[in-house]
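Hey, I'm writing a tutorial for new members on how sequence and structure tokens pair up, and I'd like a real worked example in the thread rather than a made-up one. If someone can provide the structure for the chain below, I'll link this post from the tutorial.
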Amino acid sequence: MANDMNMGTFFLHVDRKNGNTPVCGASVQTAHAGRAVSGAYTDVRGDARLALPAHSYAASRRPDSAEAPYTTYDVRVSMPGYVPLIIRGVQIFPGVTTVQKCTLTRTCDDPKNRVRIIDIPPHALYGARDKNAMGPALQTAIYPSAREVLIPQNITVHLGAPDSNAPDVTVPYTEYLKSVAASEIYPTWPESALRANLLAQNTLALNRIYTEWYRSQGYGFDITNSPAYDQAYIHNRSTFDVTDALVDETFTEYIARSTSLAPVFSRYCDGYISQCEGLSQWGSVDLAEQYYTPLDILRYYYGDDVFTKEARVVEAIPGSFPGVLQTGSESESVARLQYRLNRIAIDYPAIPFIEKADGVYDAQTANAVKEFQRIFGLPETGRADEETWYRVVYIYTAVKKLAETESENFTVVNEGFPGRELDIGMRGLDVLRMEIYLRQISAYFGADTIPPVTVNGVYDEDTRRAVSAFQRFYGVDVSGKVDESTWNAVVSVYYDIAEELPPSLPTYPGRPLKAGSTGEDVKYIQNALNEIRRGVKEIPPLDVDGMYGPKTENAVKAFQKYYGLVPDGIVGPLTWARLGAEYSGAGGREDAG
């Protein structure tokens, strides 16, 4: 018999279908690998609780464990007069309560079914993840909006890829999050890692709802259950008491940039089998074990400018379509349409820029709408009907990712002076180009030297302040206006900075590298250590063979000891980051001997 440390708990609650009344006296039988294990009967509350053997705690804390992280059981629930229910693949972790809620249907109400079956597939972290998966698709994005971030009571999930012939299910939002948590992460992880992952999962779902990503494309759902597009959700699966409690505590919290209400597109992947730009699930465990807080973990992967924000729960979130907009319309919805069209015009220059995005649907707006309709194959009416509105939302959401600092490689189409002085109140692509230049310069020199600007194509007070600061810093006449000399100076500095920036360092692979690891990441470590040892003779020389053997481990320990890190011989996120920082500067370091 397993000791207490290797025992988990299975908790079952049984209701009558369509009655929501508990079923007392239902038989609950568990089996593992075809052999009966234990049984119980539900009490007057419809509950049954069984202690079941589980694998060791350590097995679920390492991605490369030889032991399975959990033990699977099949559960049979039966009651005279009711259709028996079999739940296959229930996952039991040590020290964790697995929670299963289910309903029984009377045989007279469902005479064709002799048995109902719920199949719980293997956990996404345990061999179920596609090795080629890169996490949710990159075409998704965030768009800033004046409207509030809301949490619906229910969410509609498509049980497959977007275009697959799969059913849609509408479930309570918190129940959705609990299933995602149970499907994506292990409940035995450190609390900081659990909280960080739950925030990422909630934020991803809210991003899909907030941007109307699927509904704007004509789908009848909010999100899919496919990790290739969104995140794993298993309908009717069992969940875990640890993550259930954290979901109930934190489901109104999400992460956003400091300058926006919008939920970020919080892409993530396991970081061991699959890699992506975003949160590494296994990497978050490593960080949590190094006493990172949940927010520290999120900032490690999404950037230092993310913060937690609070959303409000509502009964339902209405679609954003405000009704047909046309010449003479005047509203906040018109202003939102104008803003989006102006942003789309950056990538589709044939769309004329709307100079006065003031909420009045004028001739310029109608012309911009008509050109948008022509480009995207819609009837060219110049009126924003429902189809046009949602197509604008969709295209805007798709192109907006280019304006995010951490992912943008924006190529300015025309770098020459536009032929007119830029000043307060002006709008257009020329202003937007100047804002892009200034934003990069601000990021390089710091906000204290050049204040940051919002890239929106509007020459507002923030833009004027940034221009004045630049002029002051570079000895140009301080006017707050962009004449030809200021324009040329800004462009010159922008490209000087681009040439000075070091090449990007390899991204942390998402898992600790240690004795026994192999591959290109190990070669990178060996190359880095060989270069760094030019100035740090305590580090022994290495053969670059991609094999993490005793020599590499000793060299890593020497590096860690020299730079004040824990000398454990394991390259986790902190060692990787310091290694990259020292490696990037080592090429210019003189030999110490």
